[in-house]
Write a structure and sequence with these properties.
There is one protein chain. The chain is mainly α. The strands form two sheets. Strands 2-3-4-1-5 form a five-stranded parallel β-sheet, with helices on both faces. The protein has a three-stranded antiparallel β-sheet with strand order 6-8-7. Among the domains are: about 160 residues, Rossmann fold (3-Layer(aba) Sandwich); about 60 residues, no CATH class; about 90 residues, Arc Repressor Mutant, subunit A; about 140 residues, Serine Threonine Protein Phosphatase 5, Tetratricopeptide repeat, CATH 1.25.40; about 70 residues, Arc Repressor Mutant, subunit A (Orthogonal Bundle). It has 38 helices and eight strands.
Amino acid sequence: MFPQVRGRGLEDAGDEQVGLPARLTPPAALADAVALSRLHRRLDRALGGGAALISAGAGYGKTTLLSSWTTSLGDSVDVAWLSLEPRHKDPVLLAEHLRLALAPALELPPAPGVGGIAAALAEGAAGAERPIVVVLDDADRLESAEAFAPFGSLLERSQENFTIVVSGRGDPPLPWPLLRGRGLLVELGAADLAFGAEETRTVLTHKFGLKSSPAQVAELLQATEGWPAGVCLAAISMRDSPDESGESDDWFNFSRHTRELIEAEVLASLPADVVAFLEDTSVVDRLEPEICDHLSGRTDSSDILQGLAKDGRFLEEIPADRPTFRRHAMLSETLRARLRTDRAGREAELLTAASAWYEEHNVLDAAIDLALEAGEVERARKLVLTGSGWALRRGLSETLIGWIESLASADLSDHPELLLALGRAYGLAGDLVGARSALEAASKAVDDRSGAVTPGIMAGIAQLDVSILVWEGRLASSEAAAERLIVSYEKRPEDPVLDTLSLDREAVYAAAAMAALGAGRLEESLEHADAALNVERIIEPTRYTLDAIAVRALAQAWMGEEVLAQRTIAAGRRVRARFESSFGDLYEIAEAWLAASRPPDASWIRAAATGGVAPIQALASLAMAKNCLNRNRAAGAVNWLATAEQALAAVPEPAVLEVLMTAIRAEVEDPGREVRDVPLSRREMEVLEAVAGDTSRAEAGRDLHLSVNTIKTHLRTAYRKLGATSRKEALAEARSRGILPERDALDACGKVPERR
């Protein structure tokens, strides 16, 4: 019924590889790594309900430390590792990858976004066989403070069986002061990670095979201030110098500027063709032999990468299905600077080639990012058109917003489909202002067009209009937009624009069903829900499947068909179990409404009932009130009813919400009272008017272009709502309520009034 709110939703993409996989395991702990037992002991203190923060600049070995520490824990704990990246600003992607990281330790059910994952983690950790350690590495790469908020609430409820460790170049926005005050935080900074004399000697001797005197070690520490990367650079310099004895007084005299360090102590010691290889492959973050061969024109990339990693040249192999390597950030920055300065034209060629390779291999997010970096705006636009439908289906709103906003230099007025995709993404992200602005821009672009506008674009405008109207609380007005949506879609359902906007039959009719439900047209909402629900598609359910199931269940419940509603929600529960996604807001509301013996499982319902846009607040609050009544918790129902009433005051066209409020309030005030003032649908009123005289059901069916069975169905529903058992009782009750004119008026006119 309502647009999805920020942080919700992820559909199963099947076998479609559209993005680089997340790094969900730590790099292998090197056999010759420095044994930082003193730091291991410090981190051990965080076990059992604490947290750890490792904050230091590049080259301090944060990831290496965490890798060796988690390895040292052995089987005593379950470790969930997630290396954060800028793309994780999209909360849906972050939630997916966090759940994948936790999969070996916990079987987490579908949950709404990071908050739902965090809540499920808190509950699951309490009953886990072993303590769980969650490592969030490279936290500085996640720029969105909002993405960390659920972790903050999780930390505030610290448990003995759960530990979170955050590592990065700064302090992410988490409740560190609170944890410090409780004595639950272990902090490691640059001073803690810096090498001492013994560790420096160990590196020189065991990692690089060098001899060193105490005086040399002391001088090296003074020059590097214990910076681990600096010590390693000095060791490389010494190992590769002509004087291998290590007795030269200036064996570690190197510039302390990072780029000069890399230039002088790493690149200068490599063959020219290897340096060229590193520069050619510097435009990609992940080094896989196949793309490296493509960019460098070589066929031996695998051997080069493995050799550099083994030799300690600031490369490491990371766990993956196929050989994959990662450069140290300092080496990456240096190589890109060299390429940009010395071979600017070559950099653009390489970016284009890398983008084309990723496009060919259907890794769309990498292809788009590289095309944008190369300045190929038009090509990036075409890639975004290809990928927008996928992003919308998966709920990756922030990802899609980032792509389209990166096309700012392009004139999007000629591409209303992109503006509509942007509007849909804003809607998924919970940004009503952005969605409305995008809709207005798309509508203007259509008005300014001299050529024909495809039905797909018109359907996209109508769909976005439906979502915004419902979200604004204009529930009655949304139905007209839904009718435009269906008409536009049915004109040409094969329009490629519909793929761009992720609008198929299921999505279109699910939106129409939700609009009809909100407007109180319950029979119509059932018809649209049935049109959306394709039995074959339920094999691979989407969020629209769950929306349609929820509409059917709620409509049946509100029409008094409790048994049918329970059957629908039970069937939906089986579909939900196969739906590895966190979409399903309306479905969760339907479950809460119909649950008779338990409170809602989804924690987000309580949050939605007390925050967010007014229609969501009102419906979620009413569902909670109804759930309380189902469980004979009258006091709870009164409280939730008050919350719903406050939210309803901000809904300009409450439509069905007002009717539900009245019905629940009546049940609260008089539990034994039968609530009969359930509104008739438009179709039910048409059928009732058609048979108000001497018209037969067959004649009414021909007049309304409906089958006799459909006429019977609508009449039975109308009888039930009116508390009648026959046509005569139904007509009398309808007249007493003012739904139909009195009999005298009919006789005076000599005909049935015009249908509404």
